Amino acid sequence: MQTAPIVDLDAPPSAFDRLADRSLAGEILSHDEALAVLATPDEALPDLLRAAFRVRSRHWGRRVKVCMLQNARSGLCPEDCGYCSQSAVSTADIETYRLLPREDLLAAARAAVDRGARRYCMVTSGRGPSDRDVDHFCEATREIKRQWPDLEICVSLGLMDEPKARRLADAGVGWVNHNLNTSERHHPAICSTHTYADRVATVKAAKAAGLHTCCGGIIGMGETDHDVVDLGLALRELGVDSLPLNFLHPIPGTPLGDRRPVDAGRALRALSLMRLLNPEADIRAAGGRERTLGSWQPLVLYPANSIFVAGYLTTPGQAAEEARAMCAAAGFELESEVESVPA
After folding, report:
1. Residue 43: what are its φ and ψ, rounded to 5°?
2. CA separation (Å) from 261 to 288, 295, 342?
3. E strands of the chain, at which residues?
4. Does the structure show a pLDDT above 70 at 343?
5. Which residues pair with 73 in a beta bridge?
6. Which among 82, 96, 138, 299 is placed 20 to 30 Å from 26, CA to CA?
7. Which secondary-structure segment (H or E) carries 306?
8. H or E stretch including 308?
9. Could you give the domains of the chain?
10. Per 3-state DSSP, what percentage of the chain is helix, strand, and coil (rounded to 5)?
């Protein structure tokens, strides 16, 4: 990997600053303008990152939100998503287990708080939650919020309707994660057991229930630049609150396991585009960040204001202390930490 470019925030304005001005004014970039962002030459990447930072800093300053995942049910999924080690078509060597008991979910929440996380997301494999699953996460959430009222709670449970989403909201869940993953055009190449429209319906159900929406995608699944642009525009149209952008971590045993990891420059271009298209969103550099960016990881903080620590569902991630040091060295600050309610 080449030496990471240096982003000089005091450099003279570039053509990308005009795009930043329009983004800050609420205008939507055209499809062609968005394609041009993805085609940014390497030598102009610092200018693009600086422009994306202008938009990021308007809404998020230099704050970085730390998030942590807990895989609450691993493997055993009937879906055939080509990127996922937990799918029915995967032969990846992963740990599989049924729904974790409430005590384990609370212990993971405590670990998230101890690592400085502001948001804790409980994730299950499977097509969607049963009523019993929803009850389980409602009970866990009530206890978590009792102990840490300021900890943001997110769940990612698969396809879901509005009544189930309302029950989660009533229990104190704040966010539902359900990614579009890719464009509507490219979706059939990634999954056949549910549709792109099914995913959109889940996001809309969460919004109708009064929940914040966490919805993004994955870069590196054979999509074209047009697909990346369509994804960004679709997320804007949905008005998502939180936008995690993942970079394919090819896992042996999955249909996409033999793909090459995403180039670091492409990852940064895609993050910058998502920021310009969704200026107010909580944009997170998510799964695959560590493998894709390597020593370039600090650069994700210019377009993104949020990161995961301590691993993903079945793949490792950056340790919390290492992430804290990275943010400080790059001149960013973590959001205020969560405190426990006194016993």
Report:
1. -70, -20
2. 9, 15, 46
3. 63-73, 119-124, 152-156, 175-177, 212-214, 217-219, 242-247, 282-285, 306-308, 333-334
4. no
5. 124
6. 299
7. strand 306-308
8. strand 306-308
9. 49-334 (3.20.20.70)
10. 40, 15, 45
Phi first, then psi, for residue 168 (nearest 5°) are: -65, -45
Kindly state the tokens that stand for 95.
């740990």
Q: pLDDT tens across 135-170, in order? A: 999 999 999 999 999 999 999 999 999 999 999 999
pLDDT tens digits, 76-101 = 899 999 999 999 999 999 999 999 99
User: Cβ distance 288 to 220 under 8 Å?
Assistant: yes
Token pair listed for 51: 């422009």
Which tokens belong to 285?
């550099």
Indicate which residues carry an active-site annotation. Answer: 77, 81, 84, 121, 154, 214, 284
Quick count: other Cβ atoms within 10 Å of Cβ 161?
15
> Would you say 66 and 118 are in contact if contact means Cβ atoms under 8 Å apart?
yes
The amino acid occupying position 64 is V
Taking phi over 0 as left and psi of -120 to 50 as alpha, with beta for the rest, 172 belongs to left
| Residue 134 parent element (H or E) | helix 131-147
Rg (CA), the chain: 19
Q: How many CA atoms lie within 13 A of 57 on its CB side?
A: 14
Is 0.90 surpassed by the pTM of this model? yes
